[in-house]
């Protein structure tokens, strides 16, 4: 295969749809999930529509992105299987973490929504930068949501250690942070001298789609999963070639929450993430 893509959270929902669509378009797909049986099933589905022999079509990647160790394990799988280049990363994995009204806390006391939805894209993308900046046409996508907050309620309490936990609030704040992270990635790549012909980074609302997450948090108010193709469009379309640092809704360039464009606010996020994952932050200094 000439191109390889990593799709996190690719065992069901929009992630699986995207993995299959990429396979149809000639990508070898790294299928990430946190359950080995579901990864195996997803890989079979992707192989069935791939242009390549089954052995070449997919790479299974088992990793729990709610922990730093899990993020680094995923990176090591990618580095081992794609030692020369990576053409596309879609930070699709996301959780709506409602532990029956209580927050879910994992390793290192990380709140699950923040860990999977925000810290993981920062760590995985940053540590993979050496592979993502090798050749022209590379794309990085951070999945946000139309349900992103307008602003962060308390920068000193992103993980709800003091605030009363709300799964919806935690999720919507995480999706605002994802937009901020994308814009910060795009700006930093440009500042490091990478032309948009080399690498771009964009974010999107993937649509209101009847995924497990939507059904759990909001009910069946969306389109079928198999029709969720906006993510594939942003990853592959010539229409967005060399476009970077933008937010798309329904394949149209839209404005994210205004606070996402505030460089001072974004540097606050960068500082918090850098403290949690200094080795990921260090990669940016080496560019």
From TrEMBL:
One of its GO terms (molecular function) is oxidoreductase activity. It holds the Pfam family adh_short. It comes from the Eukaryota. Transmembrane segments: none annotated. Keywords: Oxidoreductase. The keyword Heme does not apply. Belongs to the short-chain dehydrogenases/reductases (SDR) family. This is Uncharacterized protein.
């Amino acid at each position: 295969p000439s191109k390889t893509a990593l799709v996190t959270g690719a065992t069901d929902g929009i992630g699986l749809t995207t993995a299959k669509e990429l396979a149809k378009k000639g990508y070898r797909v790294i299928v990430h999930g946190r359950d080995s049986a579901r990864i195996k099933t997803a890989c079979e589905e992707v192989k069935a529509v791939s242009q390549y022999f089954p052995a070449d079509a997919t790479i299974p990647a088992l990793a729990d992105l709610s922990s730093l160790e899990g993020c680094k394990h995923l990176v090591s799988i990618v580095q081992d299987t794609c030692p020369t280049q990576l053409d596309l990363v879609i930070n699709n994995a996301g959780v709506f973490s409602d532990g029956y009204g209580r927050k879910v806390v994992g390793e290192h006391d990380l709140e699950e929504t923040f860990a999977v939805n925000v810290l993981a894209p920062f760590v995985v993308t940053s540590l993979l930068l050496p592979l993502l900046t090798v050749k022209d046409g590379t794309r990085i996508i951070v999945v946000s949501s139309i349900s992103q907050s307008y602003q962060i309620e308390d920068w000193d309490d992103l993980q709800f250690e003091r605030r009363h936990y709300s799964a919806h609030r935690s999720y919507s704040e995480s999706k605002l942070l994802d937009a901020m992270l994308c814009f910060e990635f795009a700006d930093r790549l440009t500042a490091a001298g990478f032309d948009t012909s080399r690498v771009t980074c964009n974010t999107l609302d993937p649509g209101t789609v009847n995924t497990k997450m939507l059904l759990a948090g909001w009910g069946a108010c969306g389109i079928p999963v198999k029709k969720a193709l906006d993510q594939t469009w942003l990853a592959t379309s010539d229409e967005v070639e060399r476009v970077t640092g933008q937010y798309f809704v329904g394949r149209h360039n839209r404005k994210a929450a205004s606070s996402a464009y505030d460089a001072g606010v974004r540097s606050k996020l960068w500082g918090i993430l850098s403290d949690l994952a200094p080795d990921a932050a260090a990669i940016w200094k080496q560019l």
